[in-house]
Design a protein that fits this description.
By secondary structure, the protein is an alpha/beta fold. The protein has one domain: Rossmann fold (3-Layer(aba) Sandwich). About 45% of the residues lie in helices and about 15% in strands. It is built from 8 helices and 8 strands; from the N terminus they run βαββαββαββαβαααα. The protein has a 3-stranded parallel β-sheet with strand order 1-2-6, sandwiched between helices. Helix 1 links the parallel strand 1 and strand 2. The longest helix is centred in the N-terminal third of the chain and has 18 residues.
Length: about 220
């Protein structure tokens, strides 16, 4: 049995080192209700595994690719880029994985994963600016050239969130998202590569497929 958690449940060292499945993290470090509930559910799953249930936990990073219908927060970032609504970036970063590789990782965790173990399903660590440069290359649109200080982004997100929620709308700039972006979510995926033979498709490929799909489906 595979329990799908989130990379937000992986600790990120203050030293700037990569987070791993063994990096300590506590509930109070979780930003937002979603991550807190995921963390609590993950703890329950791991406790059940200790009691003998065949449970393996996977922590996907940021899957990208086609058929992102909602879209997810990562997909929404791509759509904003394509709509030319990302004139500036802040100094943050995340780990991307091809959504197809992520799905394969779930299957391999079910077949090969060790009971009670956690596996980070990811591929490549990229800064937000680097992601935008890849999107620029595959879309033909210019990448942002302005770096926005965190304090400015936080203030803009605070007002955007407060006013949007007051009128029952989705914030254009999420305060929770900006808070999470304060630290680069860079992780080490070596365990899943070693034990599950997790595929490592370069992010350029799924980002190109995502751009083509969003355009085909008229998201932009």
């Amino acid at each position: 049995m595979v329990y799908t958690s989130t990379v937000g449940c992986i600790g990120i060292p203050d030293s700037g080192a990569l987070g791993t499945e063994d990096t300590p993290i506590a509930l109070e470090k979780m930003i937002g209700t979603y991550k807190r509930t995921k963390f609590q559910a993950e703890q329950v799953a791991l406790e059940l595994a200790k009691k003998g249930l065949p449970i393996v936990v996977v922590n996907p990073t940021a899957p990208v690719g086609e058929m992102d219908i909602k879209p997810t927060p990562t997909g929404e970032m791509i759509v904003r880029f394509l709509k030319r609504k990302m004139p500036a970036v802040i100094d943050t970063g995340l780990n991307l994985i091809d959504v197809r590789d992520c799905a394969e990782g779930h299957l391999r965790a079910a077949l090969r994963g060790r009971t009670g173990e956690r596996y980070i399903l990811g591929c490549k660590n990229l800064t937000l600016l680097d992601i935008c440069k890849v999107l620029s290359k595959v879309s033909g649109l210019p990448a942002p050239t302005i770096h926005l200080p965190y304090a400015v982004a936080y203030t803009a997100a605070w007002f955007s969130t407060k006013f949007s929620l007051a009128f029952g709308k989705t914030p254009g700039i999420s305060l929770e998202g900006v808070k999470m972006a304060k630290k680069r979510m860079f992780v080490d995926c070596a365990k899943a590569i070693r034990e599950l033979s997790l595929p490592q498709t370069p992010p350029e490929e799924p980002l190109a497929r995502a751009v083509a799909w969003f355009r085909e489906k008229k998201y932009v």
